Model the fold of this input.
Amino acid sequence: GAVVSQHPSRVICKSGTSVKIECRSLDFQATTMFWYRQFPKQSLMLMATSNEGSKATYEQGVEKDKFLINHASLTLSTLTVTSAHPEDSSFYICSANPGSPLGYTFGSGTRLTVV
Amino acid sequence: AQKITQTQPGMFVQEKEAVTLDCTYDTSDQSYGLFWYKQPSSGEMIFLIYQGSYDEQNATEGRYSLNFQKARKSANLVISASQLGDSAMYFCAMRANNAGNMLTFGGGTRLMVKP
Done:
């Protein structure tokens, strides 16, 4: 079946540094990738939608300059958390639709801890 | 705008019994899809079941069934014969076909199966 590979699964970084999260579609082409953030004991909130070859669409309240999204190819989308702060500590998860009406394949998620 | 409401933050069920997880939704779109996902503590999102807005029959997948009441805008998940491994977070989600294909998630229900 369709697989989205997400790396890293866990990352701890120092405050002020940047962290890159990668999501690769392994056996299908993902023209669109959805990026979600999930705080502890909360639901998934859509941050942005990345589109191959064009600018990402960000949800209201999400800082474009802080959460840089690049979708340079049909199989790779990246989210870079720039100048990370402890409040950015969260679970980040990506999702793509491989073309099935049932939708959506999710990455395994990245647990980011900023210290 | 789409909205998904899950009114049960936490539920207990005895092993081998059935349990219903509630989900109501709000959309002005006529064409939409409803999904249920299971999220164990590892964080992965596991697809359980799907119901299209034009489907006349309630969806079933093994021990999972979806009680779809379109007029009431509800899409409750029924898990029969609960197992200890069913303990997890459960999210109801909706895709409105005129809203960019992204999923909107409810707040989730934590299900705990008692031995």
